[in-house]
User: Fold this.
Amino acid sequence: MISLAVIFWMYLLLFGIIGGLRGWAKEILVLFSMVLALFLDAVIMEHVPGVKPALAAQTPLTQFSVRATFFLLLAFFGYETPAVATIFADKARRERLEDMLLGLFLGAINGYLLVGTLWHYLHATGYPIAGILPPEADSVKAMLNYMPPELVGPPYIYFGVGLAFVFVIVVFI
Assistant:
C-alpha cells in the first residue's frame, strides 16, 4: 500500500517534468483553467441557491465524482489549448532554458492544484473510493490544510481570477 502523500509528491514531480517539456506558455493556460475551476466551484457552492444542499443530499461517492469531474474537465480543456498557446509560444521560444525552468515551476504548481484539489475532495467526502484509506500520520493530516480549496478558497480565489484576467489583457494588448 502506498501513502497518499507519496502519490501527491510523485505527481507534483511528474507534472513539473511535463511542464518543463511543454514550456511556460502552455502551462500558464492550464494554470488559468484550474484557477477558473476553483473559482467556479467556490461561486457555485456558495452563491447558487440549492446546489450545496442538493450535493450534500447525495452519497459521498457522488459528491466526490461530481466535483472531481467538473474540476478534471476544466483541467483537461486547459491542457487541450494549443491554438491559443501559440500566441505565447513565439515569445517563449527565444530563451529555451528559461522557458523550460519556468514551465517546470508552473507545471509543479498545476500538479499541486490538480492533485491537491482531488485529495481535498477525497478528504471532504470521507474517502468514499474503495481501497483509498485516510492518512493516519498527523503530518499528512496537517498537509490537508494547505490543499488548494482550503488555501486559495474565497476570497483569495477571487483575486486569483482577477490577476489571471490582468495577465491576459496585458499580454494580448
User: Anything to note?
Assistant: The chain has a mean pLDDT of 88.
